[in-house]
Each structure stands twice: as C-alpha cells, then as structure tokens.
Amino acid sequence: MALDTVHVGFLIRLKAQPGKDAAVAEFLESVLPIVDDEPRTTAFVAFRTGDSEYGIVNAFADDAGRQAHGGGQAGAALSARAAELFAEPPTVEPIEVLASKLPA
User: Fold this and answer.
1) Residues contacting 73, CB < 8 A, separation 6+
2) pLDDT over 60 (residue 4)
3) Which of 14, 85, 90, 95 sits at a 20 to 30 Å CA gap from 52?
4) Per residue in 34-91, pLDDT tens?
5) What is the DSSP letter of 61?
C-alpha cells in the first residue's frame, strides 16, 4: 500500500480532567507502539491544542483500515482510560482526507 493513498481517518478530541494533563500526555505517547503494530494505520498524530485540550488524527487508505483501528487495541485503550483521564467522553469524528503529504 502506498503511503500517499490515505483517504479516510479519525479526528479525536480529548479534554483532560483537572490535574490529569501529564497523565493524558503519557497515555497518548503510550499508544504509539500499539498503533505501530497496526499495518493498516498509515498516520497517527497525537497533539495538544491548549490547556487540557488534546487530540489525535489517524489516517487510513480505506474504511476497512479505519474500522480495524477503531475496533482494535488503541480504541480499547482509549475507552478503558476515558473515565479516568478525560473530563468528557472523547469525541470521535470520521473524516475524509482531501489532501496529504506523508513520508515516502
């Protein structure tokens, strides 16, 4: 699968509970090895947008890859820690990728 053929993804928005910013950042870093083992996940970016506000963008070649990721270990880890880490349930939005630049 060519890396420049991402067509779909997820945008996940997260709001940390008070005092949990460090734990959220640590959790997001801990998910990377899980995602690295997913052959159909082309891109994974975890980010912070401000105090207590975080997000994840994932990209996939097709909807089957997106669904495999959503039902896989990373999604399970997010669900398992959601009540502990986040002030509200994560917002998971399916997205359509219109343009991308990925490493070769």
Assistant:
1) 34, 37
2) no
3) 95
4) 999 999 999 999 999 999 999 999 999 999 999 999 999 999 999 999 999 999 999 9
5) S
Tell me the pTM: 0.91
Which domains, ranges and CATH numbers included, belong to the chain? 8-96 (3.30.70.100)
Q: How far apart are the C-alpha atoms of 56 and 32, rounded to whole Å?
A: 11
Task: Name the 3-class secondary structure at 9.
Answer: strand
- pLDDT number for residue 17: 98
The H or E element containing residue 74 is: helix 73-85
90 Cβ contact list (under 8 Å, min separation 6): 12, 13, 14, 78, 82
Token digits of residue 74: 């990373």
